[in-house]
Amino acid sequence: LKMSCFWLYLPLHLLAVAFLCHSIKALTTSSQQNFKTDLFNFYHSLLLADGKETTVHLLKDIPKRYYFVLEEGRALAPFTITVTPCDVPIEWSILVHKASASFLGKAARGDHDTQEVSKSQKAPSMVSTIFNFKGNSVETYMGMSPHSALYILEFLSTERDTHITVYLTTDTTSGHLFPELPSDPRLDVIGIGHTTVTLTWKHSPSVSQHRENIQYCLLVNEKHNYKSLCAAETAIRSSGMKLPPTLALSLSPHLLEPQQVMILSNSELSIISKASSGEVRQICMGTKNTYTVPNLSPSTQYYFDVFVVNLLTNASAAYTGTFARTLDEPEPKAMELKDGKVIQVVLDGTNQKFYNLQYQARHKKIQFAFQLCRGQVQVHITKNGKTVVSENISGLKYFSLKGKFLDTYLVQLRSTEESNSSIKVQVSPPLHKPLFPLLPDSLKIKSFSKLRTCNSVTIAWLGTQEESKYCVYKKKIEEDQVWTELQSADRCSGPETRRKSEKVLCKYFFDVNLQRAVTTETIKGLDLGTLYLFDVYLFGPSGIPVRYHSKVVKTRKKC
């Protein structure tokens, strides 16, 4: 024990060392063994700074201890301890070593004598727990010591490794590190729209005292509320986002990460962080205590947290968070379809929302025709609210439906690709002149490898039992253009979009026997070893063309 006291002189405060060593002497032999544990705990404690915020890193199931001393001259003075968990709930407690005030004062000055020691044997020191807490909320302990004492703070995380912040102050006259909250720290939702939520809250008393050093910051997310700014930063980082050093005060654009967007307007700073778990917005609005959050998604529940921040110290206090669900998105107005009229719809692939068309039947039997121009499109048709068609469209597609006079049909179109898609739509009664020509079983163009030469290729395509006009076009392309040409082709565009020099020929043909409804064409005058893109357009009675699937063929290099 003497050796232990000797080594304690090096890292610890002289007063605390003298206090513990004297306490050991004051104990009876039977009590000394129990006191060894207290001595060991103290030896492995760290000094907690007064008036500064300390970050403490905790390993799972391993307690960590800090101590501070209230000397004789500080007796009866109040002190406060604020602990902020930054992630999971933790357990923490405050223990106090009490002893004679007169002895501690003399121990600090080093002038105690044997008689004083013998007196102190009648009043051995005591160790008691004066406060303990378990949870993840910010908790403040306010105390007042009636005599000099040594305090030990013990922290423990039982869930996982984490970190916390601890603030101790024994000087209550120099102002507060943490901004003050009003007596009612709740957020009030005073307005909800389809894409907006309006919030208000009572002013912090710190605003009236230190307006130039205080500001409010709002955090918006779709997961849950946060009890501290520290907890919010930790959760956002763990979701895959990288935040600036101080979430609420990041005013420099170069501190932002690629997945963040900063918007500065009307004296408001907004930082939008994106990750797989969703979007988190951080908005700092000065000392305004009413704010309308814009650009939210309809039919979505959002969680709102307001923090009052001390700009000088970066310390913050959290209001009681709230949540609100934006209003459902209003049903978009449906465009009216008319008998025989063709419309072309361009669909936005980024939001993949449905585009609505409405038709009121004038006949019991009707036919919908869809021609896919670009991309991929899903078609959903309901009759009087009941689904009758739900299908992805490729090429040209007809749907013949039976119903009653004045039945209401709703056609919903949606792009299934991230890029934009487009489609042509027509509805008509069965006796109406068809918009599109009669189609063969396949719209593929076939080429014959054995018939290729250095300056010609032979292609073939299927026809129908109806005499129709077919036009062939060619275009030189490079190797690196093949994929783009095939994927980006507008299958609804006609020959009017082509150059006259690309036209090869036009011809009419049909055959009542579908087995023989096939035609071939040898295209001459080509360059050797060159890639060509061939297109065939089929024209029906209405004059609207249908484009066969493009075919890429390369002439031979050697003949």
Walk me through this protein's architecture:
13% of the residues lie in helices and 42% in strands. Mean pLDDT is 80; it is low at 1-15, 22-40, 100-123 and 242-267. The strands form 8 sheets. Strands 12, 13, 14, 15, 17, 18 and 19 form a 7-stranded antiparallel β-sheet that branches. A 5-stranded mixed β-sheet has the order 1-3-8-5-6. A 5-stranded mixed β-sheet has the order 20-22-27-24-25, with no helix packed on it. The protein has 559 residues and is mainly beta. The longest helix is centred in the N-terminal third of the chain and has 15 residues, at 29-43. The protein folds into 4 domains: 34-99 and 126-169, Jelly Rolls (Sandwich); 177-245 and 278-330, Immunoglobulins (Immunoglobulin-like); 335-428, Sandwich (Jelly Rolls), CATH 2.60.120; 445-554, Immunoglobulin-like, CATH 2.60.40.10. The chain is built from 8 helices and 36 strands. Residues 1-26 form the signal peptide. This is Protein NDNF.
Task: Write a brief structural summary.
The strands form eight sheets. Strands 12, 13, 14, 15, 17, 18 and 19 form a seven-stranded antiparallel β-sheet that branches.
Helix/strand-derived category reads mainly beta
| Count of individual domains | 4
Overall pLDDT metric: 80
CATH superfamily of the largest domain: Immunoglobulins
CATH class of the largest domain: Mainly Beta
Strand content: 35-45%
Counted beta strands = 36
- Spatial separation of the terminal alpha carbons: 103 Å
- Based on CA inertia axes, which overall geometry fits? elongated
- The parts where pLDDT drops under 50 for at least 5 residues are 1-15, 22-40, 100-123, 242-267
Can you name the CATH architecture of the largest domain?
Sandwich
